[in-house]
Amino acid sequence: MKVNDRKVDRVVLIGVGSVGISYAFGLVNQGITEELAIIGLNTEKAMGDVMDLNHGKAFAPSLTNVWLGDFEDCKDADIVCICAGANQKPGETRLDLVEKNMKILKDIVGDVMASGFDGIFLVATNPVDVLTQAVLAFCGLPANQVIGSGTTLDSARLRYKLGEYFQISPKAVHAYIIGEHGDTELPLWSRVTIGPVPLQTFLDTHEKYNAKDLEDIFVDVRDAAYHIIEKKGATFYGIAMSLVRITESILKNEYTVLTTSNYLHGEYGVNDVCIGVPAIINRTGIQEIIEVPMNEEEQQKFTHSVQTLKHIYEPAIKRV
Asked: Among the options 181, 206, 304, 311, which is catalytic?
């Protein structure tokens, strides 16, 4: 759509579960996109969500045009965000979801591409790394146009926990989780800074903090979803805020560095896998994958994460 010869930003959301609608709320509440079409298998619920969101527009920073969409709306979309799929149940890992969700996404991607879509896929459905690679295979678009939420939320969780521990704003903590969004993820401790100060230097100059506490902090981050699912059945606010941040970086052409799930073709010495690593995100999608130097222990853990994802993806894609 164009207004006065200016193209209007459009996001299409597919999936009206807790993650999808939390994402939609974040987009409207922050005024991130001018248009938002919502597609859901349960059209009655989707229509109810559209109505509910529109009723709050008087309080939004800008007026997002929100409507009940269909796949034809994807033709002119800048971003199609996929939040559809089966949820992770108590006791399940994200990788347990791969078979059923890969089949769901194959049908969705086929319908999106039939519209003539040539924008950016943003994938949130778990296991997000495996399904991001599946979407890339199903759609045939260039790799820079298919982005998974990756470890953006995990990195935000780490920043929050370190900020809590060091009694400093998480915005002043620069820390990254990379690898699988799941059990084999790893923190890049060697690259963490507290403000401009390297983590180890900060520990050395503050006696009340102990390096041994860092492992407990990481375990809390890695297992956070299990604890939240146990308590409330699902995680959705944090991941929705991560998706909103990625969307903002794309639509506003921000060149932001985020640990999204990206397709590697030689970076880090790895080929043919989607995995969470820092990337520069702008209007084209993935502008550049940043290769972060790792110590030997980090490299070994990253290699293990890569192999875990390959082991899951390769047989699964053949069965779909």
From this structure: 181
